[in-house]
Amino acid sequence: GESGTGKELIARALHERSPRSDKPFIRINCAAIPRELMESELFGYEQGAFTGAVGSKPGRFELADEGTLFLDEIGEIPLEMQVKLLRALQESEFERVGGVTTTRVDVRLVAATNQDLAQLVRDGAFREDLYYRLNVVPLRLPPLRERTEDVPDLVRHFLALAQEEHDLPVKSIDNEAMELLKRHKWPGNVRELRNVLERSLLIDPVRALAPSKLLPASPTRSGTDTELIDADTLPTLAAVEMTHIRRVVAACGGNRTRAAGVLE
After folding, report:
1. How many whole angstroms from its chain centre is CA 200?
2. Following DSSP, what letter does each residue of 98-148 receive, concatenated?
3. Which of 22, 51, 108, 258 might form a disulfide with 252, Cβ 3.0–4.6 angstroms?
4. What pLDDT, on the 0 to 100 scale, is given for residue 132?
């Protein structure tokens, strides 16, 4: 699925609704791990295995024993590591870096990617045997633009979360604003929708959400049919800040102590 569609949420749901739900759920973002550290992160290391290894450390496979290991952005794993990952998946065993003892584990693996792994295989960037080992039960998470019927439920859910997190009064969203959200293409998917709602709520925590308060922004858009306000009409930052403070104080019934807590 594309970025922002909720791949980790699905992985957690699979774990929590499985017989392994009382066991560990271990996540690793393969794109965030330097190539030289990938093996030790996955399989752990023994004391003295490399400079700085002053003690032994278990890897993610060991930590996830009897539970679920979620490999996010699996397409970013270097080719040289893919062979070792394949062996760990096929044999359910591995050795720590610098170790000679074989460790066996019982791990359920869930992998996610925003890339086309089949194309990476054709390009020689991903091992074909690993691809087929992973591709047992594939799930495609559709982008938000393909499931606009979910937008109203997501809007209500994220508004409730943001209002609770920031201790703001419950507010509604008018029909015109909801239709605008349903028509938007959402290149950032569910993550972008949540951020837009939170930003709009913080800008005006009192009045109902209206089209003029919804400010989606994307570094990849040129500002055609997705532009929602005219930047020339924006007030100064100082004016926005003062308006926001006054509205929060009003929403708190004039209680400045509570308003200060909301604004903190």
Report:
1. 21
2. T--SEEE---EEEE--SS-HHHHHHTTSS-HHHHHHH-SS------GGG-G
3. 258
4. 95
> Does residue 153 carry a pLDDT above 50?
yes
Instruction: Record the tokens describing residue 48, joined without a space.
Output: 């003295």
d(CA 93, CA 87): 7
Whether the CB-CB separation of 154 and 145 falls below 8 Å is answered with no
Query: β-strand 57-58 against 68-72: which pairing, if any?
Result: unpaired
Kindly state the tokens that stand for 185: 């293409």
pLDDT in tens, 62-98: 999 999 999 999 999 999 999 999 999 999 999 999 9
Tokens matching residue 131: 């691809």
Q: What is the pLDDT of residue 208?
A: 66
| Paired tokens of 104 | 């066996």
Residue whose structure tokens are 């359910």? 92
pTM, to two decimals:
0.74
With CA atoms as reference, report the closest residue to 215 among 61, 206, 204, 161.
204
Calpha distance 174→208 (Å, rounded):
7
Beta strands in the chain (DSSP E): 25-29, 44-45, 57-58, 68-72, 93-95, 102-104, 108-111
Q: Are 262 and 168 in contact (CB under 8 A)?
A: yes
Beta pairing class for 108-111 and 68-72: parallel
Torsion-angle region of 203 (φ positive above 0: left; ψ -120 to 50: alpha; else: beta): alpha
Q: Strand, helix or coil at 79?
A: helix
Q: Is the pLDDT of residue 148 over 50?
A: yes
**Contact present, 164 and 158 (Cβ < 8 Å):** no
